[in-house]
Design a protein that fits this description.
By secondary structure, the chain is mainly alpha-helical. Helix content is about 65%, strand content about 0%. It is built from 6 helices and no strands. α2 packs across α4. The longest helix has 23 residues. Keywords: Membrane, Transmembrane, Transmembrane helix. It holds the Pfam family DUF6691.
Length: about 140
């Protein structure tokens, strides 16, 4: 029960951060990405504030032998750059640049449920399902360990 409450509070806090920083506003995100036009640098301040907070969290986590609600830490197993990472990064960036949404903010703004939010969410889920089908047929050496 404590794990569920902690997850709920963490999710609400994350969602509030996205709303307060306006990362759920695609126009704000697109203005941030428009470095050759009417650039809005305010989201850079959001990232600048988030990085030290995250670094502190990681530093505190390193001092613990185990996480609060798991038997062990389960970080990424791959450390190199491969085709899957590059293609996924390009697709993520293209989607973010075209729509002004990425998965976290679109879920946080789902309660606003305007048509662009619903369209992005549905197409994101279709893309995830399509990747699962394609990934199932890829050779095993190209998949993460």
């Amino acid at each position: 029960m404590t794990r569920t409450i902690t997850s709920l509070v963490s999710g609400i806090l994350f969602g509030l951060g996205l709303v307060i920083s306006q990362m759920v506003n695609p126009q704000k995100v697109l203005a941030f990405l428009d470095i050759m036009g009417n650039w809005d640098p305010s989201l850079a301040y959001v990232m600048g504030a988030a990085i030290p907070v995250a670094a502190l969290g990681f530093a505190l986590a390193k001092r613990r032998k185990t996480p609060f609600y798991a038997a062990s830490y389960s970080g990424p197993t791959k450390t190199g750059v491969d085709g899957r990472l590059v293609v996924g990064s390009i697709m993520f960036g293209a989607g973010w640049g075209l729509a002004g949404f990425c998965p976290g903010p679109v879920l946080a703004s789902f309660l606003l449920a305007g048509t662009p939010v619903v369209v992005f969410l549905v197409t994101m889920l279709i893309g995830m399902a399509a990747f699962s089908v394609v990934d199932h047929h890829l050779p095993s050496q190209s998949k993460p360990a």
